[in-house]
Amino acid sequence: MHIDLSINQPTWDLALMAKPAALQQDWSYGDAVAALGGRVIRAGLVEDGVLVGLAQFTVRRVGGLVGMALCTRGPVWLEAVTPAGKAEAYKALKAGLGLPWPRIVMFTPDEVAAAGVHRMSRVMTGYSTVMLDLTQPAETLLAAADGKWRNRLRSAEKSGAKVVVNGTKLAQYRWLLETEEAQRAERGYRATPAALIPDYIAAKSDRESLIVLRIDEGKQKRAAMLFLIHGCAATYHLGWLDPEFRQSSAHNLLLWQAIERLQQRGVRQLDLGGVNTTSGAGIARFKIGTGGAVTTLAGTYL
Question: Are 152 and 255 spatial neighbours (Cβ–Cβ below 8 Å)?
């Protein structure tokens, strides 16, 4: 197993058109991080001349001295790799990124039971999210949803609420980013900077990588959801609901119509963007109610 630090974007993007992966492992996500002042290192993992994995790291300096590289929800394994092969890959990545000492190299594998990490220390518990397999027919997906979730969807459909496809030029969805930032400040939670989204779309050079759906009442915006497409996968990135519209089940309708649009574009997997049953119980219930697979990753390893 050896690493290729000269891997190019076309090779990377082509691989992720066939293999669903987390947003944080998309090349354009790395470009967006760099546009916001971060540093990114990318590596291909090659075994017997075959590209078997991809690993994108964000790098920052801790305490002004220690270089810390983090591979979030990676590596992406493109081929079947044995636990021994994965252990070898982790070892090669730790040694071969070109970071001077002192350095820390960490991984949060995108696996429930991570293989090949037995030589590393687990330093953080795993991230939880809900994954929807969009290769299933729509009727199968809907049948898997919780009965109350389906009832809310039907109620929203019967209400006559009209779903609007929001424009994908920055000026057309800036209002949602600003609303999200205000919402974060008010509720005191942290998330990926909303400013990353326009940089991500600019790096993609494709506004079709963004879906923004909203519900209006008259001339007033009432609810919205924003999705990012990356390779053959997509991520629900942020949403907003007017407090006065909270009983409308608007997000059930928006999410369902987004699923239909994503399927039409050939997206195979939708990540609903994390669940936290402690501080975000209501949002967690909404996501779990879709019937998707609740997934808790193995954790962060050093």
Answer: no
The DSSP symbol for 287 reads: H
Q: Where are the strands (E) in the chain, listed by range?
A: 2-4, 39-47, 50-62, 66-72, 76-77, 103-108, 122-124, 128-133, 162-165, 210-217, 220-230, 233-241, 269-271, 293-296, 300-301
Residue 302 lies in a domain: no
Rounded CA-CA distance 25/188 in Å is 27
Same domain, 203 and 250: yes
Q: Which domain holds residue 99?
A: 2-120
**Per-residue confidence (pLDDT) for residue 187, from 0 to 100:** 66
Q: What is the 3-state secondary structure (H, E, C) of 44-59?
A: EEEECCEEEEEEEEEE
pTM higher than the cut 0.70: yes
Percent of the chain with pLDDT over 70: 97
